């Protein structure tokens, strides 16, 4: 977000037929690939459900997998888009623990294996809209965050949910210096209101393209909130806390005039340094041939989420 350093590579130029084949493949074989490519512990729990929110699947090509896993924002592994795939390959995602704390009847520390047993996995195809005005369409594998949170029985004081990424400078070079990590005060933290966290579109993802998450995409477990700018979708989560007060969030703390707590996608609210009216579609050609599309309010999910914000003025979405 601080830097915009797009690069052109051979992989940027993707033939339309590759998209079409890929999409057809996904349509026909998603069940099979999702089941066969998940790790053994996840296969046991994997089922495929009717995909209620699959509105994009019929009219939007998926972003090629190679793009999804090589053009990343994960500042813990460097601030250039190509840094995470290089620097995260040896990231240890097992054993992995997530601590659940705060305003809930039940709390504790759980292994990833525990968490994967609680809920069946499903596929959700969502557009990811980065605040830097580009987007991808990604087939995630995961489960609704609500299904996970309900089991902890949040109390009436739980007004927000706060999330934290792993802090491990030994493994994450971006955390070793202010310079290398984009000036962020690590660990990366994010938060949602309890209503946002409980919304059926809010996903905890453990995979994409039918496989476990690559480290650069936030392995082993990350949030996906499709109607908000990408920075809300915090990666490699180790802590979930129910709170009464609005939690700190990394980007709003770093640049409060540029990034807000809500960060709902809104084409009419410009970033102070660029317009949000349209977006580059990643994977549709090199830098100068890339297609664009008009950005939609709530990234196209207004029908499902607008009621969450009925009392709030438009400009305050940011
Ligand atoms: N911990 C952490 N989570 C993060 C980020 C980050 O730098 N660190 N970047 C965010 C941003 S800006 C975006 S656009 C998405 C990118 O997700 P992807 O690389 O899987 O496409 O992750 C978000 N989650
Ligand atoms: Mo982003």
From TrEMBL:
Predicted to be exported by the Tat system. The position of the signal peptide cleavage has not been experimentally proven. The gene is msrP. InterPro entries: MsrP, OxRdtase_Mopterin-bd_dom, OxRdtase_Mopterin-bd_sf, TAT_signal. This is Protein-methionine-sulfoxide reductase catalytic subunit MsrP. Part of the MsrPQ system that repairs oxidized periplasmic proteins containing methionine sulfoxide residues (Met-O), using respiratory chain electrons. Thus protects these proteins from oxidative-stress damage caused by reactive species of oxygen and chlorine generated by the host defense mechanisms. MsrPQ is essential for the maintenance of envelope integrity under bleach stress, rescuing a wide series of structurally unrelated periplasmic proteins from methionine oxidation. NCBIfam families: PRK05363.1 (NF003767). One of its GO terms (molecular function) is oxidoreductase activity, acting on a sulfur group of donors, quinone or similar compound as acceptor. It comes from the Bacteria. PANTHER family: PROTEIN-METHIONINE-SULFOXIDE REDUCTASE, PROTEIN-METHIONINE-SULFOXIDE REDUCTASE CATALYTIC SUBUNIT MSRP. Mo-molybdopterin binds at residues 72, 75-76, 130, 165, 217, 222, 233-235. It is an enzyme of class 1 (oxidoreductase). Its cofactor is Mo-molybdopterin. Belongs to the MsrP family. Residues 91-251 form the Oxidoreductase molybdopterin-binding domain. Binds 1 Mo-molybdopterin (Mo-MPT) cofactor per subunit. Its EC number is 1.8.5.-. It comes from Neiella marina. GO terms for biological process: protein repair. Heterodimer of a catalytic subunit (MsrP) and a heme-binding subunit (MsrQ). Keywords: Metal-binding, Molybdenum, Oxidoreductase, Signal. It catalyses: L-methionyl-[protein] + a quinone + H2O = L-methionyl-(S)-S-oxide-[protein] + a quinol; L-methionyl-[protein] + a quinone + H2O = L-methionyl-(R)-S-oxide-[protein] + a quinol.
């Amino acid at each position: 977000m601080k830097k915009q350093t797009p690069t052109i590579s051979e992989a940027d130029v993707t033939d339309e037929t590759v998209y079409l084949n890929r999409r057809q493949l996904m349509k026909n074989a998603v069940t099979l690939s999702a089941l066969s490519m998940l790790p053994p512990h996840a296969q046991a729990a994997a089922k495929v459900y009717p995909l209620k929110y699959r509105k994009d699947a019929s009219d939007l090509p998926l972003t090629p997998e190679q793009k999804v896993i090589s053009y990343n924002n994960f500042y813990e592994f460097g601030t250039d888009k190509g840094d995470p795939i290089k620097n995260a390959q040896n990231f240890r995602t097992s054993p992995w623990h997530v601590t659940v704390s705060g305003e809930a009847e039940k709390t504790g520390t759980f292994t990833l294996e525990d968490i994967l047993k609680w809920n069946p996995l499903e596929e959700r195809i969502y557009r990811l809209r980065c605040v830097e005005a580009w987007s991808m369409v990604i087939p995630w594998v995961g489960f609704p965050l609500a299904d996970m949170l309900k089991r902890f029985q949040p109390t009436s004081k739980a007004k927000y949910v706060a999330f934290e990424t792993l802090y491990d400078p030994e493994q994450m070079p971006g955390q070793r210096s202010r310079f290398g990590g984009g000036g962020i005060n690590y660990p990366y933290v994010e938060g949602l209101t309890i209503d946002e966290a409980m919304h059926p579109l809010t996903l905890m993802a453990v995979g994409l393209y039918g496989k476990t998450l690559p480290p650069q995409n936030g392995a082993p477990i990350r949030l996906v909130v499709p109607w908000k700018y990408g920075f809300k979708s915090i990666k490699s989560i180790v802590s979930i806390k129910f709170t009464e007060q609005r939690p700190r969030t990394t980007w709003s703390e770093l640049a409060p005039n540029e990034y807000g707590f809500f960060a709902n996608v809104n084409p009419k609210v410009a970033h102070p340094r660029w317009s949000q009216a349209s977006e580059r579609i990643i994977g549709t050609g090199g830098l100068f041939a890339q297609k664009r599309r008009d950005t939609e309010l709530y990234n196209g999910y207004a029908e499902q989420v607008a009621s969450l914000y009925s009392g709030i003025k438009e400009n305050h979405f940011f």
